[in-house]
Amino acid sequence: MRVVAGSASVGLARELAKSAGAEFVEVAYEKHAGGSPDGERYVRILGPLEGEPVTVVATTYPDPKIVELLLLMDAVRDLKPTRVTLVIPYLGYGRQDRRFEPGEALSAQAIARHLGEGADAVLTMGLHNPEILKFFGVPAGEVSGMPAMGRYLKGRDVDFVLAPDDGAVRHAKEVAAAAGKPWDALEKTRIDSYTVKFEPKRLNVKGRRVAIVDDVISTGGTVALAAKELKAQGAKHVLVAALHGLFVGNAWDKLAVCDEVATSDTVPSRATKFSVAPEFAAAIPR
Ligand code: R5P
Predict the structure, then answer these.
(1) How many whole angstroms from 216 Cα to the centroid of ligand 1?
(2) Ligand 1 center to residue 182 CA distance, Å?
(3) How far apart are CA 126 and CA 144, in angstroms?
(4) What is the pLDDT of residue 196?
(5) Pocket of ligand 1 contains residue 218 by CB under 6 Å
(6) Residue 82 phi, psi (nearest 5)
(7) Do residues 5 and 12 touch, judged by C-beta distance below 8 A?
(8) How far lies 70's CA from each of 129, 206, 281, in Å?
(9) CA 250 → CA 27, 176, 229, 232, distances in Å?
(10) CB atoms < 10 A from the CB of 180, how many?
(11) What is the distance between the alpha carbons of residues 226 and 199, in angstroms, rounded to a whole number?
């Protein structure tokens, strides 16, 4: 198997190739040093793919990476591989998974349909709604990255894993199982019309080291609020872990309340501390 990467997924793709015992093929992302003056994307695959099964690994954030991925799929297909598996570590536009108002684009479908065109199969991770998988038009699956987060937390000095809301409970359970730690979830209680209190349902945080886990950090609001509450209740150390770290706008300012922020390599950033490559490598159809 050969592995090629989009420019935001080179690290993850190299790790995936290593885990799968596959060959990593380099790609050039610029025709001339400095890139195109008008910002247009460019790709050129720098090795043969003919007669080989190929895995393309490319995240779709930020938006120019979507254009780059369309070019990459065109270049890959032209080199005549036997089969193309597309790994999309982070798939954007998942929240617009239906037409909420008349006249709206069904963004998740529009993006998935185009990306799936050149692929025989698609794998992705941490979807807002797994129903989106059917939009690819080819067999598509969601791979869980929570075991990777669990492996990271296993090696950290953390007393328990905490879901910031009910939606994250399934993630907290999976991470806690892999990390061998207890888990809990924050519960929202309205004190009066002006005050809302967030408290762990079962566990006491006073003097404890807590890991808040979620699927995505976007603006940072959700986990920063949870971290602030835990600190106010006496938590000694608050680590925040997520699969996808987008860190939109002033997210890093909000996250200053956290002692550590750790995300996977689905969207590389300064918070990237663990890799989901083994999870994807194990899921690629052979
Ligand atoms: C919510 O459904 C998700 O699991 C995340 O909690 C949310 O998307 C995070 O967004 P933000 O970082 O903007 O609060």
Answers:
(1) 6
(2) 23
(3) 7
(4) 66
(5) yes
(6) -75, -30
(7) yes
(8) 23, 50, 22
(9) 33, 29, 19, 22
(10) 9
(11) 9
Exposed e or buried b per residue across 217-239, where buried means at least 16 C-beta atoms within 10 angstroms of its C-beta: bbebebbbbbbebbbebebebbb
3-state secondary structure 223-255: HHHHHHHHHHCCCCEEEEEEEEECCCCCHHHHH
Among candidates 250, 245, 237, which has minimal Cα distance to 268?
Answer: 245
Distance CA 156, CA 161 (A): 11
Paired tokens of 234: 């006496």
pLDDT confidence band for 220 (50 / 70 / 90): very high
Residue 261 in contact with ligand 1 by CB distance below 6 A: no
pTM: 0.94
Task: Note the pLDDT of residue 202.
Answer: 79
Q: Which residues contact 116 (CB under 8 A, 6 or more apart)?
A: 86, 122, 135, 136, 137, 138, 140
Residues labelled as active-site residues: 188
Tell me: the pLDDT tens digits for 64-80? 999 999 999 999 999 99
How many A from CA of 286 to the centre of ligand 1?
Answer: 34
Place of tokens 């003097």: 207
